[in-house]
Inverse folding.
């Protein structure tokens, strides 16, 4: 393959010469990468921004929050998307929240367990509790659904429960929220954690899942808006230093009340203004 | 006793065939059942709205076809060239040929996400193509080349040496033997490799999400980012809440598209085969 790989690269370069770097980021194009949770929302905000600012292009790419952080740092993109608060190692970046999201524990609807204490959740995820009968349910084996490395929901979950990912004994590792919901809906013994807006919508539509309250607070969008639900996160746009020019205008627009309907349409919670 | 085992054998053969067909029909039926309601002419010709839950897939369809066109434009000449070299210009048991075949076989088995990461690092970042249809198409070309080269080479090698000797005896040049005799004879294998490649490319998500990207606007040039149909389906079903019915409809479109392209490729190979007889 070495020979044909070289041919390949040669071909790429020749084609390149023809197309001649039209793509590079210019003054009228914003490129964003990052969290797949935030991407559909920012994509919609971008379309509205494009409509109000003819000639401007907002290109939204995905890949996860870590990628958003890395690409913003390296200068590959103008703005990153990160679905959590920035941590202590990321002080070189500036976060601009555009919406809130809560993360709730979900079980299959047929599971009789109504609530789990933080200690029980920890023990289940560490593999110390392996059957629902140990926490008041049926004698069914627990299927622990965890999120993949690099997902902000995972980081939020680990931080809240003071767990390390290496301690978790998961049977299923998933990426996106919808995937988590589908996994739990298809497995009566499963436990997982997903974005609350998404879970609320799916549960209302008849998907066999249910959200557990946390520390006595019901997992509802209203409780996230009030800031009462313990496991919530900001959805952020991040920039390297203070944003300028087009990036600044876009971030101001994304943080304004003009996008509230878009935030709600993606099952997130608009910022309290 | 003989008839009993014979019958059991016949039954299991029929069963295996029926199971294969049933699995495909079930899949198609499930897609049609869930997707038909959402599918309409306007779904095909309008832009996606509300993260793809409503609206259509027109820009995504255009991007998909453009990505495929770029991939084939790069892969067909390179692949045919490499296959001809392997089959005709090097000894079949030679060390170089053997090692190239081995690396092609290894490459053919590499998961597509690896090609995606390579494509992102090489085409998007190193060559500065950014997230673009061009990056996506070239990444797909890298991905389908190994299978395409190996099937085409097998087709060429299967042509009887008598034909080569006869052509040489007639004083035909190497190029004209290739063009008029060997390639037409190997056409079914070449088309088969092409169809495998197209199938793999059109259904590809992992290699495209980091190369051609996520943007669902109508592409204006090959250097624009464009979301492929498979990426759209993945996003709708795994990431967008309430995107399921649009995902089913898009998947139905994808399947119909693959069937169309494959039928087209078959028709093309038939024409090429019949022309061989009268070629000058």
């Amino acid at each position: 393959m070495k020979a044909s790989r070289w041919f390949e690269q040669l071909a790429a370069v020749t084609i390149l010469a023809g197309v001649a770097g039209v793509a590079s980021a210019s003054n009228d194009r914003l490129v964003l990468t990052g969290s797949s949770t935030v991407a559909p929302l920012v994509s919609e905000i971008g379309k509205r921004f494009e409509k109000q600012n003819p000639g401007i292009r907002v290109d939204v790419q995905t890949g996860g929050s870590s990628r958003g952080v890395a690409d913003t740092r390296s200068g590959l993109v103008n703005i990153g998307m990160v679905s959590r608060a920035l941590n202590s190692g990321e002080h070189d970046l500036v976060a601009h929240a555009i919406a809130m999201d809560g993360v709730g524990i979900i079980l299959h609807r047929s599971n009789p367990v109504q609530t789990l204490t933080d200690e029980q959740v920890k023990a289940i995820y560490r593999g110390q509790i392996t059957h629902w009968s140990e926490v008041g349910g049926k004698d069914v084996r627990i299927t622990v659904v965890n999120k993949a490395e690099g997902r902000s929901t995972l980081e939020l979950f680990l931080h809240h429960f003071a767990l390390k990912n290496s301690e978790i004994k998961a049977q299923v590792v998933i990426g996106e929220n919808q995937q988590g919901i589908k996994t739990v809906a298809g497995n009566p013994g499963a436990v997982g954690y997903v974005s609350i807006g998404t879970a609320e919508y799916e549960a209302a539509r008849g998907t066999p899942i249910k959200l557990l309250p946390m520390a006595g607070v019901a997992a509802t969008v209203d409780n996230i808006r009030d800031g009462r639900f313990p496991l919530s996160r900001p959805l952020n746009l991040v920039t390297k230093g203070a944003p300028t020019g087009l990036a600044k205008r876009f971030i101001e627009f994304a943080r304004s009340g003009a996008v509230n309907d878009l935030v709600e349409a993606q099952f997130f919670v608009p910022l309290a203004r | 006793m003989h008839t009993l085992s014979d019958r059991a054998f016949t039954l299991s053969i029929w069963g295996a065939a029926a199971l294969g067909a049933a699995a495909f029909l079930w899949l198609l039926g499930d897609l049609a059942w869930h997707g038909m309601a959402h599918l309409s002419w306007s779904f095909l010709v309008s832009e996606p709205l509300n993260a793809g839950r409503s609206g259509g897939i027109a820009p995504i369809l255009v991007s998909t076809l453009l990505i495929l066109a770029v991939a084939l434009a790069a892969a067909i000449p390179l692949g045919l060239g490499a296959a001809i070299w392997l089959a005709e210009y090097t000894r079949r048991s030679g060390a170089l040929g053997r090692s190239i075949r081995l690396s092609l076989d290894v490459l053919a088995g590499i998961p597509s996400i690896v090609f995606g990461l390579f494509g992102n690092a090489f085409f998007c970042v190193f060559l500065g193509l950014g997230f673009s249809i061009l990056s996506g198409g070239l990444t797909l070309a890298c991905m389908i080349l190994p299978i395409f080269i190996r099937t085409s080479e097998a087709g060429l090698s299967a042509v009887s040496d008598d034909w080569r000797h006869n052509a040489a005896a007639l004083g035909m040049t190497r190029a004209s033997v290739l063009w008029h005799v060997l390639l037409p004879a190997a056409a079914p294998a070449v088309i088969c490799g092409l169809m495998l490649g197209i199938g793999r490319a059109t259904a590809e998500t992992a290699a495209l999400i980091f190369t051609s990207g996520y943007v669902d606007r109508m592409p204006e040039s090959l250097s624009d980012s464009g979301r492929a149909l498979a990426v759209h389906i993945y996003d709708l079903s795994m990431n967008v809440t309430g995107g399921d019915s649009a995902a089913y409809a898009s998947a139905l479109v994808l399947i119909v598209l693959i069937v169309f392209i494959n039928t087209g490729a078959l028709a093309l190979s038939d024409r090429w085969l019949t022309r061989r007889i009268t070629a000058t």
